[in-house]
Amino acid sequence: VIRPELCGVCGSRIRFGKAAVKCRQCQLLLHPKCQGQCPGPCVPRPRHRIWPHEGVLADFAPTTPPLVPALVVQCVTEVESRGLTETGLYRVPGTEQLVREWKRRLLRAGGALPALSSVADIHVVCGVLKDFLRGLKEPLVTFSLHPAFLQAADIPDAAACSTALCHVVSKLPPANRDTLAFLMLHLLRVSRSPDCKMDVLNLSRVFGPTLVGHASADPTPLAIMEDTPRQCKVVAQLLSLPPDFWRGFVGTEQSLVP
């Protein structure tokens, strides 16, 4: 589940990121252990909201907090369940054809995502996440706030830089803010894995262009040249913010990962 839900049988809460069973006919949601007590007959209800092929992040987000798209949650959950011992996580590319195919399948499925456990190569899952974020109509930090993020990251005093970045993050649209927080907590866990050999500097180089991008959809060659090193600096500074700051938007780490 992507947001806390109540079990249709026992009435207790199913936590964010936990497995559940849903009826294809009426969409009734249950704990797996409650499946045998499922009431009937069911009354069909409309299927999940269909996702667009492209859009801004809010187009893919759920309607209740935390506003993190199911695709992002599922990719991160899969990476953390079996990828934190892989060297070069997010740096080593997955097979391009498989990345495209799985991204297409996930977008076509909308909110009812197929399991990623059948993807043998975890680098393909990483590629799907990066490709999804790159394919958004505007980067996670948004076009309008892009200059503010660059300026905040350039502040030489560490405390003032952190304060400025926290202020700019709070101005993001809710879905962008929650998703950025979710990703920062994930990337911090990746950076702490000695097997991955992906420290904050390596991760910022990978995710700078993806998360920060440019101030417009059609940047000039000069803007691309000037932005590239600053994109990485923004992500590195965001990863230096206290984890509790990010948890304030999406809850505890325990609630994010099953």
From TrEMBL:
GO MF annotations in UniProt: GTPase activator activity; metal ion binding
Domain Phorbol-ester/DAG-type, residue spans: 1-42
Domain of life: Eukaryota
Keywords: Metal-binding, Zinc
CDD domains, per database record: C1_MgcRacGAP (cd20821), RhoGAP_MgcRacGAP (cd04382)
Alphabetized SUPFAM superfamilies for the sequence: Cysteine-rich domain, GTPase activation domain, GAP
GO biological process: mitotic cytokinesis; mitotic spindle midzone assembly; Rho protein signal transduction
Stored Pfam families: C1_1, RhoGAP
Any single GO CC term annotated in Swiss-Prot or TrEMBL for this entry: nucleus
InterPro entries per the UniProt record, alphabetical: C1-like_sf, PKC_DAG/PE, Rho_GTPase_activation_prot, RhoGAP_dom
The Rho-GAP domain, residue ranges: 55-246
PANTHER family to which the protein is assigned, alphabetical: RAC GTPASE-ACTIVATING PROTEIN 1 (PTHR46199)
Protein name (database record): RGAP1 protein
